[in-house]
Amino acid sequence: MKSYSKYIIHYCFIASLFFSSCKKDLLDVTPPDQLSTTVFWKTEADADLALTGLYNYLYASGGGYATSQYTIVSWDNYSDDSYGQYNYGGGTSALRSGITPSSSEFVANYYVNNYRAIAAINSFLANVGKVLSGNKLTAYKGEAYFLRAFNYFWLAQLYGNVPIVKDDPFGMDYKNGLAKSERADVLKFIESDLDSAIAALPNTTYSSGHAVKSTAQGYKVRVLLFEKKYAEAAALAKQIITDNFYSLNPNYASNFYKPDQNNSKEIMFSVKYLLPNIQHQDVAIAVHLQRWKGELGTKDLINEYEAGDPRKTMTFFMPGDTKAEGWPFTGDLSVATPGKDSWIEGYYAVKKWLTPGLVNPDYGALDDNDYVLLRFADIKLMYAEAQNEAVGPDASVYQQVNEVRARPGVNMPPLPQGLSKDQMRERIRHERRVEFAMEGLRYFDLRRWGIAEQKLNGFIPNPLAPTVKTKYESKYEFWPIPQTEVDRNKPVLVQNPGY
Amino acid sequence: MKNCLQTWRKPFFYKKGIIRSRKSLRPYLLIAFSFLSSILYAQHIIKGRVTAGDSILTGATIQVKGTQTATQTDANGNFTISAPPNATLLISSVGYGNEEVAIGNRTALNIQLQSTTQKLSEVVVVGYGTQVKRKLTSAAVSISGEELNKRVATNPVTLLQGQLPGLQVIQGSGEPGNEGVSLRIRGVSTFSGAGNDPLVIIDGLPGNLTVLNPNDIESVTVLKDAASAAIYGSRGANGVIVVKTKKGKGAFSLQYNYNLGISNPTSLPDVISNSAEYMELSNEAYRNSGRQPLYTQAQIDLYRNATDRVKYPNHKWLDDLFQTAYTHNHYLNLSGGKENTSYSLGLGYTDQPGTMIGFEYKKYTMDLGLSSKVNKRITIGTNLQARYGDRKYPPQGSGDMFLSTLAQSPLYPPKSPDGKWIKRAYPNEQGNKNTVALVGEDVRVRSDDYYLQGNLSMDIEILKGLTWENRAGLNYNSFKSNDFRPVVQTYFYNDMSSAGLLDVGTPGLNVGRGDNIYTVYYSQLSYKKMLGDHNVSAFGGFQQEHNQASNLNAGRTQFTTNLLRELNAGPTNGMTNNGTSSEWAIRSLYGNVNYDFQDKYLLGSSIRYDGTSRLPEDTRWGLFYSFSGGWRISKESFLQDVRWLNDLKIRGSWGQLGNQNIGTYPYQPTLSNRDYVFGGTISPGYSASTLVDPGLTWETTRVIDIGMDLTAFNNKFSLTADWFNKYTFDILRTSQVPLWLGLNAPTINDGAVRNKGLEFSAQFRDRIINDFSYNVGVNFQTYKNTLEEYGKTEIGNTTIREEGHPLDEYYLYVWDGIFQSQEEIDKSPKQPVTPTPGDLKIKDISGDGIIDDKDRTYISGKYPSYQYAVNLGANWRNVDFSAQLYGSEGQKTYVTGWGIEPFRQGSVPTTDWRNRWTPTNPTNSMPKIYVADSYAPVQNYRSTYFLKDASFLRLKNIQVGYTLPTGLVAKAGMKSARIYFSADNVKTFSKYPGLDPERGGDGNYVTYPQIRTFIFGANVQF
Question: Interface pTM (ipTM) of the complex?
């Protein structure tokens, strides 16, 4: 019996040894590859890390298939400029069957993208003061204000009335939901953020990828135009022009591919990519645009080009093009032929954004063209538009439009003198359409001009298929708030009218 | 006689074995009588008695081995037979295992037979130990390896289907090595990331069931209620499956099994393969969808009138995708025991090609069980299972293979006569990747999966009844993958012009390495004591688990050749890599007490205290416990007179279980890496994007179970029934945050789900004439699921989470026929799209004259109303027969896309579309044909049009076996030999269109089809 008690004593001993010898922290594990937020916001370097993190939201995914929201070429699928045969960006389904609060994921996608970025920005603004001070703090905050305005402007343009969130999301009480604000109030908020940014950002040329003062000014011109504050818009655009940081790139096409765009004095804001590690979302743009022809220009857009406007062939391939015209395919595809290799007859294959010299781009092709979101040419044409609306077609209006038309390599003749204000407006609208084709501006231009329904509803994208018509209702001026958002903010957040 | 019976029923013993009665003199008399007889006859007269557990066996057959001499036991289980000295008797009885007894020079024998299924003294493997079945107070069902292996399958999990009431087994696909089997014990009880998968215990420690070779399994027990699973505390909420692998015993035995399986898909959609018909339907669909038709009349005529069917084929792509697959299964087992050591070694090899081209699986298994009693108090043992899985599969998976094949028109073959891969016939056709080219160019992932699970045990008997058990286990999993995508040119068939690269994604190579190490250790003391009428058993212990996983992946692109598939063969430019690791740990203290009085009143209780690394320090410890009780009514004196009743027990249990299997670090706020390019270099960036709840704690499941077990009619009939009420609360869920918050929602404790249900199983076995015996088993389960707490209603694409309704109940527009005319459209409620005649008509549920979001409604069918299985068996002389029917009733699935919708990416319509709506065929059962690519009048609504009845009844298996006569096999040096023919998934009755109704859930209509297999096999024992 004694020996058995010994066993028991042994057991107790071993068991106690086991308990005590176990690492105390066996149950205290932390993620081995992710920093804890508790160690962040301790040094100045954290401000840089966090600021970089804010720009990363420019790589956010898109609607439809997996391109980015800022693969802006896809936005033309929403307009009369292009047809998205694979529904990139969600434009095709939006135009074919309309937009509903729960229809195709793009309605929710863009909304979520922007609010995610805004959350990070708000958190940045709430914390950056812990590690920075003085001018540096002001400058860093300036970038954050610009990015917040940038994101809210997307929301304001698409959905119009949205909740305004300015506080650190980690400290917010979100249980009771939030009502949306009127589009006008959202725009007011955007303006004030842009003003803060303009005051704080360095007064220099955009190049590294960081927003500068002129970037914020350029976006403010857009906002003011959207608000129809023409005089203010014209004044600010004029200031950018006279500040003389930018000039039109003498080679129009080289704004859109690497490495030439690195040296373009025309680019005022862009989404930056860098091979080999930061590549375009999904596939290289040459694959989705040129090989798969995910976007195809409409006959309507091609007809918009004036005779002899070289921007037509700088933006699109024509049937019969070969290597001489930059057609990238060889072998039996060496001659551009509608109906071949996913080129739908009745449309035009896109040339813009294609890096010259790329041969047979296909799966695995690599390119890292920056997506250009704001060009100096836009400032000039926005000036012209604003000035024309505010004052009328004075000489400065002519000058800015004509300079865009007279860019080397484009060399289009000046506008005829003696245009009325209305005629000038039409000329400027025309100029914007051809200058910025396949740059994602058309849909937003049509909407702010109030002619989206007139132009798009019943539009026949392909004259060879006249029964296929697009659908656009006036209520789309305000996209629906995603159904999930309405559900989660009941009853304070109500849907936009008409949905 | 009555008295005598009573005497025989009363005694109970811990050990199975010879039954002795303290009171009856009968055995002694028998012995004396036999002794006398042996003197009188040259042949010995052997007398004896056959019993099983507490019961005598009447009508058991006793045969002198190798002769025709045979007899049967009488009503008292007694027999008399004459046999030469040193002969061997073969004893058999329906429902019991056969026994061979060497007579030696004995003349009186007491023979104990083991029931093959319903044995009261049967030992059931439960948590951290075993329990005699009659003493069970919890809801646990088990099945023997022998029963399980009546069907033949390569994955043991699939064999569990229809065998154990309360366990729902859904086999998602027939893909070799990737069957997608989902196991649900008593329904879906949570919507949290913690999941609904039960815990699998192999030889006492958590492990992986698919690793095993089915032949190595000795028994499988499912612990369904809290009383049985609470001992597994934190990990038992979804029930526990306890598996015991084989141990050797007795003389050396060598067993070899072989079978050949011949498989084909159970059913495939019947698609249109006539090119001209396809083209005309396509044009009609394009016109109906307001789009430009693809084919000119001239092209259609080319195909219609062609005499050159090579140039203008009517190609059947599905015939290219599917093949007859031949599966070979080899299994070798060596087992035995000598002195104090027993051993069992099982080796298995399975070669299983897919019925879909491109899929291959080879599985090598080893199972080693060793146990040695090193001295009279110490037993050491080990169990070791190893598996090597060698799998090849197309990278996008079987669903993509299937839908891509359907997206090929019949207008062209996969390969031109001169060996070029074809993309389409014409450039304007829609389509998807050429799957035959994919397999032809070996675009397949090679996956190697090494898995080892093993444990060492040492049991020390400290005192009589007091045992100290120690068990340490290790599961090690290592996997490798090599995914190479070559550059393959494709062509258009009409003019053989080039059509770009085969869609394999980005060409290049990705390789992955991963490993997972799980260690577990427990040490427990267990104690058993019998004090007169009181029986007590108890155990308590400590357990610690730790898991560490890591992975490493690397990739390169732009290979200059398709011939090499290693990283160094590719350029370094643009190469990528990533890798990480994670770990978790659980520590637990547990204990269990069982008590019974006179084997009549039974009580049990379990307790477990768990701490997990997944939860914050202050809330990581959870206490789980259960209580249960049973009453063996048949032991009461007032039932002693009921002779037909062998045993009747009612039992009940209550307890709480935990669940914590969410992510690895759900409460820890972290930063995500967010880089950006500035000034031509990549700058590192971070941001926090997830909310966390620092007060996170356990998800808890509370189960009430009331059950009964009944055995009657001389053990011929048995019945087990259970009612349960399973309530899961504090569900670990992702909370709902508004989108404007811009953060990932935190994991929180919120929400509750209840499952109430009923399950029973019944068995009957009997013999009609001497040579013919049969058995019938039925089992049935049903449950009702309710989401009791959720917060704000959340409407998904096709489902809703709303309190008071089943979790994820369907929430859809109701399809109400087809618009027959413009007039009907004008009269009907305003649809949100602009329908034309032939489009779907949606019902105005709210009655407000407009179809909008308010017209969606609750539709039942997310969960089966009930499931059932019928098992039949029969033996006639050396021939055995078994069959299993399995049915699931009431579930529906929402399926869309390729195969069920026409012209999704150009996919071929099924022949059903010949009955489509047309102005001249005003049907109400199908719309007009359309292009299923955002065709708003059909696809804009998630309607009941796409909800299909997936109820089915399946003849799951039939098997006929023949055991070769012993005399014959003995000549070949064998102990026994059996050959059999088996057929799996023989026939399915269902209203589900086209494909097999058993599938993993909603989504794309096409998934890897279930397979029908004909199996020829042999088992030989030496």
Answer: 0.94
